Each structure stands twice: as C-alpha cells, then as structure tokens.
Amino acid sequence: MTMPYLIAAVVLLGALCLLDLLLTVGVIRRLRTQQGARTLRDQAPDDGMLPPRAIVGDFAATTVDGRSLTPADLRSPAVVAFLNPGCAPCHEELPRVAAALAAAPGNGVLAVVAGGEPGEDDTDLMLRELSPYGTVVHEGISGPLTEAFKVRAFPALCRVRRAGGQLVVESVGEQVLSASPALLP
C-alpha cells in the first residue's frame, strides 16, 4: 500500500530537482552575459583592482625584453594597464588605453598582458600594440603584478605615484583615461 506513495514521492522529488537545475543554469547564463560587457567606464574605485590611496604590494616580474622589474624600478608617476588577450572589452578599450599610455608623463608606463600564450594572435597583437609606450610584462592570469595590484577583472587601469618609498594608487579606470595630458601630474 505504501509503495505507490513512495514511488510518487521519488518521481515528484526528481522532477523538482530537474526544474531547479534548469533554473540555475538559466541564472548562470544570464549572469555571464551581463558580466561580459565590462569596460573601463564600468570600473568603480573599489572594483577590479586596488582602490585609490591603496598601497601596491611588492612584486618581482620580468619584462618582455628580459629585464627584471620591482616596485623600485617603476617610474613615478606611472600609468599601469592590465589587459587580457581573451577579453573582448580589453580589445575594444585597447586604442583608448594605448592613447592614455602615450600621454603618460615621462613615459612612466607599465602595461601588463595577463594570460594568453606567446605565439597566439590575440596575445601577440596586444604585446605589439603596447610595446611602443613603455615597459610591458606578459604574465599568467594570476602573476606577481596582478596579485600586487589585486586585479580581479579586466581591463583595469590605474595611475600610481611613489609616496614614502611605496607605490600608492592615485586613480583608477575612466578617471585615468579622461584626464588630459596637460592635467596628468
């Protein structure tokens, strides 16, 4: 007598689990499409990397031309850009980022290409586009520079200045891009 009720309960529970799975997949897809369109305009001071007035962590990296790079080697003030070859908004923002790097005072520029493999078209394109403007580093997605600047989203851009022997973030995102060359300190 209880067997038909037990079978019905198991079938109902299975159907509810399947419905829950389908709804979860739909929500994840929606979130991914909304997240994919991030640009530097969307980067808030506390989003994607260290906020203004934060101290940059210590790092040791190697530039694409083989030189070692530490915080002491970075000119002050400097514009620092983080791009990822697999990121569509990074490719869209590349001309604006290149213009900001070209306008940086005293060529205090650090461009970090995080992710991708040498020899891949997107990676090589980014490295080639950024190389004329200053120091370029190619590292893994969680390399020493992305960790020091606590980069969690791409593209990311900031201006740093040396204060008391440490690098301090002055501004991030669109603030760096919208500053005219004459206003850059």
What's the topology here?
Elements: H1 2-35, E1 61-62, E2 68-69, E3 78-83, H2 88-102, E4 109-114, H3 121-130, E5 135-139, H4 144-148, E6 156-163, E7 166-172, H5 174-178
Parallel strand pairs: 3-4, 4-5
Antiparallel strand pairs: 1-2, 3-6, 6-7
Protein name: Thioredoxin domain-containing protein
Keywords: Plasmid
InterPro entries: Thioredoxin-like_sf
Helical fraction: 25-40%
- How far is the first residue's CA from the last residue's CA? 84 Å
- CATH topological fold name of the largest domain: Glutaredoxin
Strand order in the sheet with the most strands? 5-4-3-6-7
Series of H and E elements:
HEEEHEHEHEEH
If helices are DSSP runs of H or I spanning 4 or more residues, what is the number of helices?
A: 5
Question: How many separate domains make up the residues?
Answer: 2
What CATH architecture of the largest domain would you give?
Answer: 3-Layer(aba) Sandwich
Structure description:
The chain is α/β, with parallel strands linked by helices and 185 residues long. It folds into two domains: 1-35; 40-178, 3-Layer(aba) Sandwich (Glutaredoxin). Helices cover 37% and strands 19% of the residues. It contains five helices and seven strands; from the N terminus they run αβββαβαβαββα. The chain has a five-stranded mixed β-sheet. Residues 180-185 have low confidence and may be disordered.
